[in-house]
Structure formats: structure tokens, C-alpha cells
Specification:
215 residues, 5-stranded mixed sheet, alpha+beta, two-stranded antiparallel ribbon, 7 strands
Length: 215
């Protein structure tokens, strides 16, 4: 009677009863997203600095504290570019075994490099070896949020100004709660940033020289 009741209930809801087994796949696994404790740079003999790197876990961005090594091939003497390059390389590397076990992944492609701004770029611009709009949304979200977390790269809370290797003007990108929650749907096309020009103050007119009259 119970089985018959289930059939009637299913047919009443518009669902056709079937005896064929349906394979819905394994049950979804839960990831802990527990951030591992960062190691010591002195203990490992690696020259580096502590930073928060944004990785993907559970389809969202989660900050992981790491000791980020300084790049062996230093692309520039500018300390901002040097830190940005180190953070890019940290994002490119495959997460450690401990991080992978906790559910962390990264979508940043290998080979990205950072360069200083071009002539005419706004102050604080970073030029990447690929155009930001050509990067996957998740990868760009990781880069933007990681750079905005770094006090050495970002002067404070606000957008990050990024450009590509071409002469196109740089664009501003902001790490918001929506970007962290759904990085795959983040827009890769930021707003164009124009350099601000300070108007030249007008020279006040000087005193009028007295006119000389002939006696």
C-alpha cells in the first residue's frame, strides 16, 4: 500500500514513475577551505615576505597567508613591480598538497609578468604581459583581489589600475564582495582611467608701470 501511495503521489505531481535506476553520480564532496598556517621564510632559507594570496575554494575567493618568495629574476628595480611579480608567481604556482586537500585551486595562467607604467599612465598603474580583458574572469579576480590586499602594491582600499602590453589605456578593477563570492562571473572589462592633469595656475598681472610724460 505504501508503494502504491508513492506511485499515486508521483503521478499526481506530473512525474512519471519508473523502475529504471538513475545514476546521479557521487554525492558532492565538501571542502573545508581551512587556510594552512604559513611557514617561516627563515626556517626554509627562502628570501620572501608574508602576504595574502587569493585562491579559489568552493567557487569563491579565500585569502591564504603565505611566505611569498622574491623572484630570482628581478624584472625591475621598482619595489612595487617586484612585489607584484612575486604575487603573480605565487598565484601561478599549483597550491601545496595541504592547500589542495583543503579544496584550494588557482586559475591564474603561468607566465604572467608585471611591468611599470608607461609614459602618461596614471600613478600606480601596473602593466601585465597579457591584457586584463583577455584573462579568464576567475584569474583576473584572483589577481585584482591579491594586489588590492598588498600594502606594498596598493596604497589603500580602492580599485587596482591594470593595463596590458599594448598602448591601450589602463583600466581600473575593484575587489568587491560580489567578486569574491562569484569570481567566475566577474567582468574583465574595467573602466578606462585617464591621467589627471593639474592645471597651470594663471600668472597674476603685475603692476602697471607708470607712464612717462615728456615735460
Amino acid at each position: 500500500m505504501a508503494a502504491a501511495g508513492l506511485v499515486l503521489l508521483a503521478s499526481g505531481c506530473g512525474i512519471r514513475a519508473t523502475t529504471v535506476p538513475v545514476d546521479v553520480g557521487p554525492a558532492p564532496s565538501r571542502v573545508s577551505c581551512d587556510t594552512p598556517v604559513p611557514g617561516s621564510a627563515q626556517a626554509s632559507g627562502v628570501q620572501g615576505f608574508r602576504a595574502t594570496v587569493e585562491l579559489v575554494c568552493g567557487s569563491q575567493l579565500v585569502g591564504v597567508e603565505r611566505v611569498v618568495p622574491v623572484p630570482e629574476k628581478r624584472p625591475a628595480k621598482d619595489p612595487v613591480v617586484l612585489v607584484a611579480q612575486a604575487l603573480l608567481e605565487a598565484l601561478e604556482h599549483t597550491p601545496s598538497t595541504e592547500e589542495r586537500d583543503a579544496g584550494f585551486t588557482t586559475g591564474v595562467p603561468a607566465g604572467l609578468t608585471a611591468a611599470p607604467p608607461r609614459a602618461g599612465d596614471p600613478v600606480g598603474t601596473l602593466r601585465l604581459s597579457r591584457r586584463p580583458e583577455d584573462l579568464p574572469p576567475v584569474a583576473l579576480a584572483q589577481i585584482v583581489c591579491t594586489l588590492s590586499d598588498s600594502e606594498a602594491v596598493s596604497a589603500g582600499p580602492g580599485p587596482v589600475v591594470l593595463g596590458g602590453p599594448d598602448p591601450d589605456p589602463p583600466r581600473s578593477f575593484e575587489c568587491t564582495d560580489a567578486v569574491r563570492a562569484r569570481p567566475e562571473s566577474a567582468s574583465t572589462l574595467g573602466e578606462i582611467v585617464r591621467p589627471t592633469t593639474t592645471p597651470t595656475p594663471a600668472t597674476p598681472p603685475g603692476p602697471t608701470p607708470p607712464s612717462s610724460k615728456s615735460p
